[in-house]
Amino acid sequence: MLRRIPRLLRGAVIVAVLVAVSASVYQSWATGAPGTLGWQQTQWGPLGPADRDLIEKVRMANLWEGPTSQQAEQMASGADVREVGRKLATEHAQLDEQTRQIAGQLGVQLPNGPSSQQMGWMAEISSKTGSDYDRTFVQRVREAHAQVLPVISEVRATTQNDLVRQFAITSAEFVNRHHEYLESTGLVDYSALPHHGPGLLGGGTRTSDLLVPFLVFVAALLAAVALFWGLRNRSAAGRERVTLPRPTPARRATPATRFPELATVAAIPAPRAARLDDTGPISAIDEVPLATVTDSGAYRLAPDVPTDIDERTDTGSHRLTDSGSHRAVSSSGSHRMPRSRRARHSMRR
Fold first, then answer.
1. How many CA atoms lie within 13 A of 13 on its CB side?
2. Where does the DUF4142 domain lie (predicted)?
3. Whole-model pTM?
4. Contact 198/32 with Cβ under 8 angstroms?
């Protein structure tokens, strides 16, 4: 069936699938998904990729939320927002100290700066003033905490390293308190918070989040078109193909039975033509007298045939009698045979 699908359509499906998978892998890598550095044995238990990823993410959160909270303590217009900024700045400093300590114990290399997305948030918050600054600061910091909390919870539930497990518990306590600080201001817009995770199954509404679902949709659509095209060609080929049974040796000997009989589709009427009446035998005509035609158009019987001329009509025809065998002969050259013999030589359509 695949051979009946156009080559261009098959190529488009393959390219769309490859692009979708590549984009999903790149998006997962760009969002900081766990890497593939393998496992490492430590005195506190095995250290896996997810454990390293948690330590790195907490470090990057401290690198941008600490300075931003210090800024909010000075620039926020509301007293409650300034107080929240002060608490966040203090606690992020404490958490960052613990992060660096555990990274040194486990040999995890930490990043030296925030990500490009986090730097964009810092620039957006710094560009606002007054109440806009307060709302933007609270919303962006709350959104960042919502992204790191699922990572902390997953590592807390699945890690095999005792030191990492304790660090996850401590980090979750910090993040939960920060949620309470930010939500106490009443400036959090919960409907604007993203509900997505990294990779193919993300549910974000940004352009980068919609890229992979769009590619997957295109690939599925092309695959459906290719399947429909193949099934359609297959059904059409099945309708056009006529399979005859293979003739047996007995049938090969009889050409008349080589093919199955076909049922009559429509009867075509034969052309209408005159044919002889074959309902009875045809008698030989041996009693018709011989006659000649005169210059006036009348028939004259041969001298050797005994006949009597009864009368001549006004139209020039002669009524001849020959024992009842001939009734009349017209001057136009026509003659009529006896009724008994005419009936036996009648013509019908």
1. 14
2. 50-182
3. 0.51
4. yes
